[in-house]
């Protein structure tokens, strides 16, 4: 496994330097920002690429918050944490004791400690103490199952699908094909009127913390007594010969506890594209985002997925980045497709089990889509 070591150097030099050799000695590969070049502060993009290329995220919390990127107003370590969180990576967190934390670092450490799912959390005093605990955590991680479990549903689950609560005005952008994902807690508590009043601010904060809403981007929640909807800013139009990538378009949370996300399909000048591999990766990423936002309660969840929109045809194809000159026939305008669950899932669906959950969801969606276009 590739282990990404995330920390500020200042105040943690011996501990940080003690880990690469240790990780190699237990047959894993260390990844550090020092590997990205000689600059004292690597670019944010380089740090995020390092996280993306790794299998496990190892965070050392010391007294210093560190260099702040102007793009996000957060430190490199903070941005790396968000990237690991939203990707559902296993996270090993070790906090140094016996030192005074800067106020900003203390705030960050408290936030990290609030995320128990997907984490191993420990404390250390020095490099020798840290090394023994890292080895123990990695050995434990090697033996952990995904903890994703399925249980047969005994009755149907009623979701609020997007076209039941959204009445967009006529216009091609609002009607582009979209995928909608809904999560309904089966044993959670409904939100009280008091909690619904605080939900708009909580939802915006959760989206920013999870990296789905950039710090500089504005967002105006549409709040009622029943639900809060946040529509996310979109990129400008793609060039004629470019493939526009998928974009998260919005999030909705209602008083029953249902959490919904919807996103656009990739498209070019010929059609929108359903690519099973791309759609599975995107669905897994959004399942992890739902978990990272920490808005769900309960232990068992029903998941529904659907396809909607009217103004653009869809073809099943590969997203390659190379302009297409033709498409397969027979998929016409977009059918409305909804896939209801027959099983509930555990909370691991939003973390270590996100990939498996996404595979099941996308397989059902593709079967229903193909059946509707025959």
Topology:
Layout: E1 2-6, H1 13-25, E2 29-31, H2 44-52, E3 56-61, E4 68-69, E5 74-75, H3 76-86, E6 91-96, H4 103-114, E7 119-124, H5 127-143, E8 150-152, H6 162-165, H7 172-175, E9 178-185, H8 193-209, E10 222-223, E11 227-231, E12 248-254, E13 259-264, E14 272-274, H9 276-293, E15 300-308, E16 314-316, E17 337-339, E18 343-346, H10 354-372
Parallel strand pairs: 1-2, 1-3, 3-6, 6-7, 14-16
Antiparallel strand pairs: 4-5, 8-18, 9-13, 9-15, 10-11, 11-12, 12-13, 15-17, 15-18
Helix pairs in contact: 1-5, 2-3, 9-10
Describe the structure.
It holds the Pfam family DUF4062. It is a single chain. The chain is of the alpha/beta class and 374 residues long. The protein folds into two domains: 140 residues, Rossmann fold (3-Layer(aba) Sandwich); 223 residues, no CATH class. The chain is 33% helix and 22% strand. The chain is built from ten helices and 18 strands. Strands 8, 9, 10, 11, 12, 13, 15, 17 and 18 form a nine-stranded antiparallel beta sheet that branches. The protein is globular and about 65 Å long.
């Amino acid at each position: 496994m590739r282990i990404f070591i995330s920390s500020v150097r200042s105040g943690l030099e011996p501990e940080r330097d003690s880990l690469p050799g240790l990780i190699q000695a237990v047959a894993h590969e260390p990844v550090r920002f020092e590997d990205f070049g000689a600059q004292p502060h690597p670019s944010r993009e380089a740090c995020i690429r390092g996280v993306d290329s790794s299998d496990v995220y190892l965070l050392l919390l010391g007294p210093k918050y560190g260099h702040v990127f102007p793009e996000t107003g957060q430190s490199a370590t903070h941005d790396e944490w968000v990237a690991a969180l939203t990707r559902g990576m296993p996270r090993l967190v070790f906090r140094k004791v016996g030192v005074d934390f800067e106020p900003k670092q203390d705030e960050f450490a408290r936030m990290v400690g609030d995320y128990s799912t997907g984490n191993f959390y420990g404390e250390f005093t020095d490099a020798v103490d840290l090394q023994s605990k890292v080895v123990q955590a990695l050995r434990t991680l090697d033996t952990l199952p995904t903890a994703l479990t399925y249980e047969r549903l005994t009755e149907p689950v009623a979701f609020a699908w997007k076209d039941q609560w959204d009445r967009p005005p006529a216009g091609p952008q609002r009607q582009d094909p979209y995928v909608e994902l809904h999560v309904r807690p089966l044993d959670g508590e409904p939100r009280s009127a008091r909690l619904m009043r605080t939900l708009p601010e909580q939802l915006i904060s959760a989206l920013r913390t999870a990296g789905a809403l950039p710090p500089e981007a504005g967002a105006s929640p549409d709040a009622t007594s029943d639900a809060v909807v946040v529509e996310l800013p979109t990129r400008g139009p793609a060039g004629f010969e470019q493939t526009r990538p998928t974009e998260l378009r919005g999030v909705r949370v209602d008083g029953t506890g249902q959490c919904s996300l919807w996103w656009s399909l990739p498209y070019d000048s010929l059609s929108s594209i359903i690519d099973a591999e791309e759609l599975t990766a995107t669905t897994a990423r959004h399942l992890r985002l739902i978990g990272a936002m920490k808005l769900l309660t309960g232990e068992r969840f029903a998941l529904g997925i659907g396809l909607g929109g009217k103004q653009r045809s869809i073809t099943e194809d590969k997203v390659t980045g190379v302009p297409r000159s033709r498409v397969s026939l027979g998929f016409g305008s977009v059918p409305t497709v909804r896939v209801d669950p027959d099983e509930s899932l555990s909370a691991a669906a939003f973390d270590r089990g996100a990939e498996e959950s996404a595979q099941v969801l996308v397989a059902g969606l593709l079967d229903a889509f193909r059946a509707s276009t025959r």
